[in-house]
């Protein structure tokens, strides 16, 4: 009796499909929000930088996200992950009636895992740089940024919260994607009928 | 026989990942340098930066986990959890490397807009050791991605794990 290794989606229920779609939509919204909020993060302020005699010298300083490579990586990575989620949502909705056999499911699971690691890397790099900006570092003599540019820091905080919820959601999406891969070994001679998709 | 070579390959890979994570941990912990200039003594150690502390903790967790999984018996039911835990460990590794890299990049190049000066000119050996730890962490990450793909392959294709 030949051994057939057929991958198909789920255990024959549509519940995992709905759960996956809901999680993907939430993850798409979260990562898109993080990318947009950080991408539009900019604050211009006129500060007194020095005092010569009694004349204060003012300079207009701008804090924008492009100053820090970690934030640039944050915006790009969140944009990539939200685009990936959008593609997967479209794939899931439009291929509801088609067969999902074999390699496509596996590649979706692997892509989900890689994107989960990408967004976790981006969120974490940004949060440590933001912590440096908020608290400074007295060993390296780096002073705080957040006391002068408080709106910039607030927007950054919002983007980071959205990104971390995106991380948790992407982890859940990966877990559900992996659990949807189930092997149907040849328990019965009608196992070829199992190749039909059950999304 | 292919089953046995695959199994040994997986064990070797996990041992290598354990070694790499442990090496990253040790190199980061032992990085310490004392420099003095203008009668001011400056000591740089890894606890100065929160990102480096997180790097050490994350690599410690990954090392302990790898060590424990090395001894998991072949037919245990826990292999399904190993896939998800491998994913979590990979996420932990990427986040720790990326955070430490971001902070190390600020230390090396500084940030002109924020008024942060680079410190690598004053403590070059510390910077070199941190770079070495990051490279070891990156090797551990690559090995862990391979291990993740392998665990996924062996759970989805259970004929490798169950008694044939």
From TrEMBL, chain A:
Report the locations given in the UniProt record. Answer: Cell membrane
Residue ranges constituting the Casparian strip membrane protein domain according to the UniProt record: 15-169
> Any keyword Flavoprotein?
no
Q: How does it sit in the membrane?
A: Multi-pass membrane protein
Q: Which domain of life is it from?
A: Eukaryota
**Which NCBIfam families does the annotation name?**
A_tha_TIGR01569 (TIGR01569)
Question: Subunit composition?
Answer: Homodimer and heterodimers.
Specify the protein name: CASP-like protein
- From which lineage does this chain's organism come? Eukaryota, Viridiplantae, Streptophyta, Embryophyta, Tracheophyta
Q: Which gene encodes it?
A: A08p021460.1_BraROA
UniProtKB/TrEMBL annotation, chain B:
Give the way it sits in the membrane: Multi-pass membrane protein
Keywords recorded for this protein, A-Z: Cell membrane, Membrane, Transmembrane, Transmembrane helix
Write out the annotated subcellular location: Cell membrane
The residues the entry assigns to the signal sequence are none
Q: Does the keyword Chaperone apply?
A: no
For the Casparian strip membrane protein domain, which residue ranges apply? 7-143
Membrane-spanning ranges: 12-31, 51-72, 84-107, 133-152
Q: What is its main location?
A: membrane
* Pfam families referenced in this protein's UniProt entry, alphabetically: CASP_dom
InterPro entries, alphabetized: CASP/CASPL, CASP_dom, CASPL
PANTHER family with a match to the protein in the record: CASP-LIKE PROTEIN 1U1
Q: Which family does it belong to?
A: Belongs to the Casparian strip membrane proteins (CASP) family.
Assembly:
Homodimer and heterodimers.
Q: What is this protein called?
A: CASP-like protein
Source species, please?
Answer: Brassica rapa subsp. trilocularis
| Gene name, Swiss-Prot/TrEMBL | A09p002860.1_BraROA
């Amino acid at each position: 009796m030949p051994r057939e290794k057929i991958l198909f989606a789920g255990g024959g229920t549509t519940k995992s499909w709905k759960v996956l779609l809901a999680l993907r939509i939430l993850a798409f919204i979260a990562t898109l929000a993080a990318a947009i909020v950080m991408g539009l993060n900019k604050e211009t302020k006129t500060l007194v930088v020095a005092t010569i005699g009694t004349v204060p010298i003012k300079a207009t300083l701008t804090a924008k996200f492009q100053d820090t490579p970690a934030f640039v990586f944050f915006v790009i990575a969140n944009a990539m992950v939200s685009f990936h989620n959008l593609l997967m949502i479209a794939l899931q909705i439009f291929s509801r009636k088609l067969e999902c056999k074999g390699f496509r499911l596996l590649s979706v699971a692997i892509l989900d895992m890689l994107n989960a690691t990408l967004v976790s890397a981006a969120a974490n790099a940004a949060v440590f740089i933001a912590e440096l900006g908020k608290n400074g570092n007295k060993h390296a003599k780096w002073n705080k940024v957040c006391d002068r540019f408080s709106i910039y820091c607030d927007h950054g905080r919002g983007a980071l919260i959205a990104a971390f919820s995106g991380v948790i959601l992407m982890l859940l999406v990966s877990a559900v994607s992996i659990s949807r891969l189930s092997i149907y070994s040849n328990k019965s001679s009608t196992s070829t009928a199992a190749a039909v998709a059950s999304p | 026989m292919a089953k046995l070579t695959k199994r040994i390959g997986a064990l070797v890979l996990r041992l290598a990942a354990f070694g790499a994570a442990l090496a990253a941990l040790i190199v980061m912990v032992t990085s310490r340098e004392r420099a003095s200039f203008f009668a001011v003594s400056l000591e740089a150690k890894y606890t100065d930066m929160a990102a480096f502390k997180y790097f050490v903790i994350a690599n410690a967790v990954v090392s302990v986990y790898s060590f424990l999984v090395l001894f998991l018996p072949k037919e245990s039911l826990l292999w399904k959890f190993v896939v998800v835990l491998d994913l979590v460990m990979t996420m932990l590794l990427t986040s720790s490397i990326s955070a430490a890299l971001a902070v190390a990049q600020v230390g090396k190049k500084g940030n002109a807009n924020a008024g942060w000066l680079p410190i690598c000119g004053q403590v070059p050996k510390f910077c070199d050791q941190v770079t070495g730890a990051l490279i070891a962490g990156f090797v551990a990450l690559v090995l862990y991605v391979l291990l993740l793909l392998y665990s996924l392959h062996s759970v989805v294709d259970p004929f490798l794990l169950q008694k044939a």
